[in-house]
Structures are given as C-alpha cells and as structure tokens.
UniProtKB/TrEMBL annotation:
Protein name: Protein rogdi
InterPro entries membership: RAVE2/Rogdi
GO cellular component, one term: RAVE complex
Protein family according to the UniProt entry: Belongs to the rogdi family.
Species of the source: Glossina brevipalpis
Amino acid sequence: MRQTNSLYTNRHGQRPLPPVPEIILTAENDNQSDSSNYNTTTNTVNTIELNKMDAEKQEAKNLQMEFEWVLKEEVHQLLKKLKVVLIECAHRFPVPLYENEGKKTEKFILSVSPPEQLKAILTLTGDTITQADISFKLSKPPYQIQRTSITQDSPWKLQQVQDAANHLQQAINHIDDVDDSYHFKTSDEVLHVIGNILEALQRGRLSLIIPKKKPIDELIKGRNMKCLAPNLSEDLAVSFYLQSHKLIIAVYQLTNIQGTMRFDSCQAEASVNWLNEVLLFLTAGLQLCQQLKDKISVFSLYKDFTVGSRSSSALSY
C-alpha cells in the first residue's frame, strides 16, 4: 500500500471568517441614506433658488417693459389729454387766453338782508369792474346811507383773474414745450415736466380760491379806492375780490373807541358761473398730473431703469 502524504493528512480545516456586526452594517446604510437625503435636499434648495432668481429676473423685465411703454406712449397720451382739458379751461376765462377772445360782460347784484346794509349793482367785463353802484349803511352816527360808484373812466381791476390766467397759460406752455416725437429716457425727465405743470396749475387755482389779505390801512390807501366817485372818507374802505366761485364785495368801517382803532365789516356775494367751471377744469388737470406723477414715482424707485437698459429681445413688444 502506497504511503499517504502527511502533508495532506495533517492539514487543519480553514477557520471561517467572523460575521460582520449588525451595528456596522446599519451605520453604513444610515450614512448612505443621509448622503442621499442631503443630495436631494441640496438639489431641491438649488432648484428653488434658481426658480426664485428666474422669477425676479422676469418681474424686473416686465417692470422695465412697462416703464418703457409708459415713457414712450402713456406720458404723451396724458399730456395731450391734459392740454385738451386746460384749453377748455382757458376758453372759460373772460380774458384773452389761448385763442380765447375774452372780454365777456356780465351783470351782478350783490346784497345782504336788509339790502340797505350793503348793496352793489355792477358790470364785470373780463377781469374788470367797469361800472358799479354801491350803497351801504354807516355803522356809527349818523347811521346814514353812504353811496359811491365805479365808472368806465376809472374801472376796478380784479388782479386775481389775470393772475390765474397767466398761470394757466404757463401750464399750457410747459406742455407745448414737449415735442410729440420726443422720447423720454428717465423718470426724472417726466417728473420735471409734470412738476412744472402742477406748480403752475396750483398757483392758478390758489389765486382764485384764496385772495391775498391786505391790512386795513393798505386797503384804504390802495389804488382801487381812487376808482370810487365820490371818494370815501379815510375811515372807510371797499374791496372787491374772488373767493372760490364767488365775487365778493366787502366794506370796512374804522372806529376810534377810547383811543383804540377797530373796524366793522360787512360783505355781500354773488356766484359766478365761469369761475365754477374754471375751478372744475383746473381740478381735473391737477388730478391727471398727480396720477402720472404717482405712476412715474413708482418707477423712479428703480434708479437703474432707463430706456434701453434691458436686452434687445425684451424690446420687441
């Protein structure tokens, strides 16, 4: 019998590898899961940020497009509309203004109750009182009726009418200074033009609704007092003025009481139709200006907004 090789008969069996602990497998799986979740979250955040950036870019693009349309189209449309309103206003004035011949003549009766206290029958031609019969009762002895008049030889000028007309003409001139083909480039340009028009209209409106107040001594020595015939004594003064849609006459009587000067006043009024219409048109013009100013002011917050500040592809609208 052949002898068996001890090399084979003496070999021990191979030791099996120890099992991998479950905690290690679990940790590896958790790490893989965390990594996957992190990548997913990161991708989601990046997508949201990109979408947000795209939305902001689109919003800015849309705003820029609207801004350029306002500068190119809407500003000129509003100026044309505003000019129509102001010309209609000019045609209501009783003085020559923007192709309006003016010199409209109206008669008014201004009185209080009882009429003996104060009454004026007058003719208003344009911005001038060309004739008036004035009577009022003195507030001190002998309490008699004082009479005076205005004649065509020495008419009484209502400066408020001419002032308002001048301011309205300035507003129209500011519109005419803008050529129809001019392309505004920035919001500041528009705000400058609208600001000039607004200021002129505001001055015109205020000159009609808020008369300038004068001290009693200035009224007594005023130029218009020389229009009265016969002249009044130095302790009496008459004043004609406009306030809103009314023509008003006021009589002031100075009294010396124990060395202290005081004055009594009485006034009468009459409504003037053309004044009411003028104020309505001026208010409409101011509202149109304010609407455009508010819209342009929104775009002026974006200092980088100028015509052509976006890509050429965005200009095709």
